[in-house]
Structure formats: structure tokens, C-alpha cells
Amino acid sequence: MLRELLGSERVEINILLNNGTLYMLGLETFKGRIVASYPGGIEDPTITIETSESTIQRVASSNDHVAAFKDAKDKGDVKIEATRLTTRLKLALVLASADVFKYFLGIFFA
Q: pTM of the predicted model, to two decimals?
């Protein structure tokens, strides 16, 4: 059910690296699974995620990835935006449920 909820999205991730350069990665999902990646970004993303390398390192090294991610998001160290109303609603559901949120983070920090 969760995979159906997340569905097919085009995700662009922009990461400010510690050396000052910007790393861009595009991900294409189908039924909640990553099916393709595009170094340099993706055209017409439905979700955009912006963060920094140091934030990713802080979340990844934390004992509680969910709490660390939520803290980073609350501080503005992670920005997640959706371009379509349906995607915004799906993201709101994912970010509101602890169990669903753990699954969502598992995609990136597995």
C-alpha cells in the first residue's frame, strides 16, 4: 500500500558538498522503488530535496535517523518541496506517520 501511495515520482536531490560544490542527482521511482538515477539532476521533478553533505552525515551517523532527519528538517537543513498537489498530499502523509517516515528514510539510508 505504501509503495502505491508513493507511486511514480521524479525526485531531484541537490546536495551542497563540504567543498562548496553542488551535487545534483535525479531519481525516478515506480511503485515506491527507485528504478533509475540521473547524475546531474532530472527534468521536471515532482519532488525536490535540498540539503548539505554535513546534514546527510549527521543524519546517517545518528542512532535515531527519524529524529535526526526531523530535527534537520525543522531547522531548515533539509527542504522538501513537491510541484504537484497530489504529490504534496502524499508527502504530507509520509512525513506525518512515524512508520511510513521510517520506510521513506530507509530508501535513502538503507
A: 0.79
